[in-house]
Amino acid sequence: MKNEETIILGAGLAGLSAAYHLKKGYALFEKDGEIGGMARSVHKDGYTFDYDGHLLHFRNEYTFNLVSELLNGNLAPHKRNSWVYSKGIFTRYPFQANFYGLPNSVVKDCLMGLIKARVLSASHLNSNGSFESWIIKTFGEGVANHFMKPYNKKFWTVDLRELTCEWLDGFVPVPDLEDTVTGAISDNTKPYGYNSRFWYPVKGGISELVKGFSGKIRSAHVNKKAVTIDQRRKEVVFEDATIKKFKNMITTIPLPELSGLLVDMPSEVQQAFSMLRWTSIYVLNIGIKSDNLTERHWVYYPEENVIFYRVGFPTSFSTDAAPENRISIYAEIAYSDVKKIDKFEALPKAISDLKTCGIISEESEVEICLPMDIKYGYAIYDSNRRHAVQIIKNYLERFEIYTIGRYGSWKYMSMEDVILEGRALAEKMNSCNKYKVEAKA
Description:
By secondary structure, this protein is α+β, with helices and mostly antiparallel strands.
């Protein structure tokens, strides 16, 4: 392997997108034995399990066309069918637009709170800019207490007053008052949110997208784990003792991991790295002996007595995900340094809760379980995040090292966002290289 102008560390979706869009020489390195990062699928006993739920949502025509081309017909659209399970019943997602079927007292709380929130000005609410204050200001106390606060506390694991609103960016739907009233007196099915429509491979799981990218780029070097990045000498040392020099580097390594690879960082940068916080996801992928295929795509569980915050049903959007007369699910459990879980007890508790929630009838229906422990599930958007990330990025860019992707940018991003970020950086680097060539000429 000769030295390349650009080294890409990490062959997940961000690294693959950057490689696909780069026009000049690069080398792509992946620490694992296969490419794909979190956009991988595992095939076991006839089941296909993704690394957690990975659905494609498109706001950008370019991304839709690119993914369609890469999947070459192996892509199907779906109209979202998602629900919330609370108070012992199912209501449609999003909760804040669908109170129909909830106990009358809950419906009253939610509607009155929402009306008061819309009437009162923000100044009356003494908003301090936290996510919790945004919830109350936007939806009122009823929606906050019956869903928004318990669900988000369960998902983020931290006090919602610690979270900023920087991550929202359309991820939380805000229906108008008339639609909410309609959703309180009838089974309202109006679509809300960025994921009201999604796409998923017909066969093979989300790793089919990775295969599509891999056929369009140079082969990645797998089992190449970086152990040291000397930003001043512009060298990366791998676990197998090989050393590669670079002019530019694109890294998708999670920022907390990257901090242990760099050498001789200023104290300010070290401190910035230490400020980063995250929530982890323990995913239980479960195969079930049943032909009772639900039409639901996923369900949210806000109540604390249920261990998982969400359950998804892959066989509802791809019958190829399980053998005949079988269904598959993934149950997601959030944990962090402030909310621990006992992973040995998680499975029996989850199976018990699946039975209580009516997803399985008997424990004997479970024939396979494949746990996946995702350490860096979501970056926590506290008051330190933006400042810390900016310090880190500014420092690294002095050495022409660029961090991208969900974990490299330390952002809440969709798969489309990740693909577009890889494209944007690659095009920026392409333009710089073109300018340098023209200047020499």
